[in-house]
Amino acid sequence: MTSDAPATPDARIAGFLSRVASRVWRIATGFARTRAARPFVRFGTVAHTRLYRLTRGRAQARSYPTLLLTVAGRTSGKPRTAPLVFVRDRGDYVICAAYSGADAHPSWWLNLRAAGAATIEDGPTTVTASLTEVIDEADRAWLWDKLVRMYPPFGYYKTRTTRVFPIARLTPTAT
């Protein structure tokens, strides 16, 4: 049922701000995919990683749990760290290589795939984990839904590309 009553000024302002924020976010994620943005993205990654380690993971959005994934570079062998959002499922960390909807896979994914294992920092906890790429369609669909519910931008990223986003389980290994 719709109302013919005009919206209150507060409702109009809230709607306007929501539309502006949505447009700014879409422009920002579009820029983040360009070559010109790489220095800014690198800076953001380094800053986020340092802040995460300094606060032992406490300085993060509660609705978007974040981990630090460290894996050896596939050509350099140097440790590379990326902050990633994740969900937990049956003791595993589940991650998605969405890369803001870019047409290419992110470097961290290519490195992880080559290495087959990584170090995960989840708050104050550090574990080694082995990689299992999720290929079963039913499992992928269920995990994709879980990921999008936790981090809705994943759904928008999917509209930007025809690339299939890799979904992976990182299973902590005994040390």
Task: Give the helix/strand layout.
Layout: H1 9-32, H2 38-55, E1 66-72, E2 79-85, E3 87-89, E4 92-96, H3 107-115, E5 117-122, E6 125-133, H4 137-150, H5 153-158, E7 167-172
Antiparallel strand pairs: 1-2, 1-5, 3-4, 4-7, 5-6, 6-7
Topology order in helix (H) and strand (E) letters: HHEEEEHEEHHE
The coarse silhouette is: globular
Could you state the CATH homologous superfamily?
A: Electron Transport, Fmn-binding Protein, Chain A
Calculate the terminal CA-CA distance, rounded to whole Å.
Answer: 59 Å
What is the radius of gyration computed over CA atoms, rounded to a whole number of angstroms?
18 Å
Tally of strands:
7
Order of adjacent strands in the largest pleated sheet: 2-1-5-6-7-4-3
CATH topology, which one? Pnp Oxidase, Chain A
Residue share in helices?
40-55%
Going by helix content, strand content and strand pairing, the class is alpha+beta
Strand fraction: 15-25%
Number of helical elements:
5
**Could you tell me the mean pLDDT?**
85
Shape-level CATH architecture:
Roll
CATH class value = Mainly Beta
Oligomer: single chain
> What is the total number of structural domains?
1
Characterize the main sheet: 7 strands, antiparallel
Q: Low-confidence spans: pLDDT under 50, at least 5 residues?
A: none
